[in-house]
């Protein structure tokens, strides 16, 4: 049965950041028909690397739940974006400071860096701006803010004011909170002994930072582990263990938290009239 060919335009949604929560948003918008361009820094430090499009910075491409992200260069960005979109892919450009944002004239800018502070996003960057989590004030530096704190308001759209401040305490998984997150005991380069999805026991050495061992804080499955060779500082978050050993598959899928936040972003775009820039292929009978 013949299908109508998908039509692509220059309309794009620009997302700053490609970590695991940002990837949940990006994946949702891509699946909804939006044309996305990701802006990332030169050396992203994602922990949940198997579900983070920012890994394309290092490897050229990154695939999450069947969607491919491809790194592009500063040479004729629009042409490269169109090529990616036509192939069903998501382009990623390294642009830490967002210097290309205004020239690209996006329909909306989503700040999904999750830095707990605003690293330079402003309302004049696009007709619509959205900030994820603390560090933004709706109506001032961005138009809308999305709550990222786990709980009753997760994913809620904030039209005035800010998201809840960062507590520094991870959300509970199987009743375990801060113990499941591992911070670097020293400064130095990572040398991973274990890999994401490995089952580990409490106090097992999972990596080295220079000559300092990194031990598992609890028993479970390694859900996130910073990239081998990455230079870390003392106290930096470098790993995440899920106490539910039977949930290995979660290492390779977008989290419930990311999907909830993505729903809030999608709602903002649709309610503000920012519609997908791609016409979906449809059956001839439906034309």
Would you kindly provide a written description of the structure presented here, covering whatever features stand out?
The chain is an alpha/beta fold. The chain contains five helices and 17 strands. It has helices spanning 20-31, 56-59, 77-86, 101-104, 256-271, and strands spanning 13-16, 36-40, 61-64, 67-71, 90-94, 108-111, 128-132, 144-146, 157-158, 181-183, 188-192, 199-200, 205-209, 212-215, 220-225, 231-232, 237-242. Strands 3-4-5-2-1-6-7-8-9 form a nine-stranded mixed beta sheet, sandwiched between helices. It has a four-stranded antiparallel beta sheet with strand order 10-17-15-12, with no helix packed on it. Strand 4, helix 3 and strand 5 (90-94) form a beta-alpha-beta unit. Helix 1 packs across helix 5 (256-271). The longest helix has 16 residues, at 256-271. The radius of gyration is 19 Å and the shape is globular. The two termini are 13 Å apart. Mean pLDDT is 91; it is low at 1-7 and 279-287.
Beta-strand fraction estimate: 15-25%
Radius of gyration: 19 Å
Largest sheet entry: 9 strands, mixed
Through-space gap between termini: 13 Å
Dominant shape: globular
DSSP summary: helix tally: 5
Low-confidence stretches: 1-7, 279-287
Global structural class: alpha/beta
Task: Give the averaged pLDDT, no decimals.
Answer: 91
Percent of residues in helices: 10-25%
Helix-strand topology string: EHEHEEHEHEEEEEEEEEEEEH
Task: Kindly report the spatial arrangement of strands forming the biggest sheet.
Answer: 3-4-5-2-1-6-7-8-9
Q: What is the β-strand count?
A: 17
């Amino acid at each position: 049965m013949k299908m109508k060919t998908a039509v692509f335009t220059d309309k794009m949604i620009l997302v700053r950041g490609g970590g695991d929560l940002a990837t949940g948003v990006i994946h949702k918008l891509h699946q909804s028909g939006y044309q996305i361009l990701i802006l990332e820094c030169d050396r992203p430090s994602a922990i949940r690397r198997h579900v983070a499009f920012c890994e394309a910075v290092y490897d050229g491409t990154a695939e999450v739940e069947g969607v491919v992200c491809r790194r592009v260069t500063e040479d004729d960005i629009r042409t490269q974006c169109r090529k990616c979109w036509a192939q069903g892919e998501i382009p990623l450009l390294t642009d830490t400071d967002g210097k290309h944002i205004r020239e690209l004239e996006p329909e909306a800018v989503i700040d999904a860096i999750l830095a707990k502070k605003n690293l330079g996003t402003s309302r004049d960057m696009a007709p619509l701006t959205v900030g994820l989590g603390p560090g933004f004030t709706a109506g001032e530096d961005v138009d809308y803010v999305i709550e990222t704190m786990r709980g009753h308001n997760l994913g809620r759209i904030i039209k005035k004011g800010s998201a809840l401040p960062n507590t520094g305490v991870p959300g509970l998984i199987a009743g375990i909170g801060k113990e499941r997150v591992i911070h670097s005991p020293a400064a130095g380069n990572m040398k991973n002994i274990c890999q994401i999805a490995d089952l580990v026991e409490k106090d097992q050495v999972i990596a080295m930072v220079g000559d300092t061992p990194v031990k598992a804080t609890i028993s479970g499955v390694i859900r996130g582990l910073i990239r081998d060779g990455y230079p870390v500082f003392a106290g930096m978050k470098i790993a995440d263990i899920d106490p539910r050993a039977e949930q290995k598959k979660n290492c390779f899928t977008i989290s419930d938290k990311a999907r909830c936040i993505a729903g809030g972003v999608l709602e903002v775009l649709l309610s503000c009239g920012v519609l997908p820039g791609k016409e979906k292929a449809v059956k001839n009978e439906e034309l």
